[in-house]
Amino acid sequence: MASNLNLRRLRQSSLVRELARETRVSAEQLMQPLFTVQGLKQREPIPGMSGVYRENSASLLSQVEADLESGVKKFILFGVPGQKKTRGFDFNYTANEIAEIKKRFGKDLFLAVDVCLCSSTDHGQCGVVDPSGTRVLNSETVEWLSKAALAYAQAGADCVAPSDMMDGRVGEIRAVLDAAGLEQTLLMSYSAKFDSRFYGPFRVAADSAPKAGQDQVTLKDRSTYQIDPGRYGDALACSERDLREGADILMVKPGMPYLDVLYRLSQKLNTVPWAVYEVSGEYAAVEVMTQQGLINADAAHREAWTAFIRAGASLIITYGARYAKRILV
Ligand code: PBG
Fold it and tell me: Is pTM beyond 0.85 here?
């Protein structure tokens, strides 16, 4: 006798599929990255990332205004200072950009700001390098990161987001913010950030690729501080530590190659929201395949975002947030 099991009944039409679906993505779960670069005459497109730009102060404000009109309310800002340094960093350019955005748009938007040194250092490492050029110094880097976080929070950032992967930076930043009366400023930690090749297009956008040889620095990559792709246990240890040190939101980055990590971590540490970063290389892969006529970009983005929510994310940082109305049909 033929089985009367009919699993296809619930797939028969879009309306039936809609009512059967348990995982949905909504625009309010998305956060849009923004790049602001000091000294740019005109905004510049980023290779492989259609619709994403390196902005200047003026174009940044117009872009945010356009994004608000498209329904985006959450942003993460990356500031790229005009002058690279070895030490003696100042964070005024990014702080001013934050203040301008907040002055103009106030509480209409939620503004997170990435905290790292890789766009500020002449060698492109995420921290201060020791005199032999072979090691990123933890405590000195954490001191600079705390100064950056304080400057951004004082300028009006709603959230600071350290992405450097030094030890102890979450606790230190939280203490510095609280001591300055900024206890309402959120802290989102890039807690499970892997040493990934998928950051390629971003490093062009943020002018932050490691440049071995500069100033006798021999470090070629970020593998001595970002997590090895084969070490789930390290991602767990970093996330547990950051939670203990006071992070409000934890993150897995990149997204698609680390869905298992997102699933396991969000199940295990389930008292805080989890963000996932669909990084530049993931976004560019979809865009490039689309330009080759191989896939439909909107449907592919929608599928990836659904996977992130299914795996346990509350928040998706994606370069496609500003196209959500079109993508989430
Ligand atoms: C800075 C930082 C990086 C990204 C976010 N913050 C790059 C890196 O670690 O090299 C990557 C974002 C992306 O690829 O979209 N440390």
Answer: yes
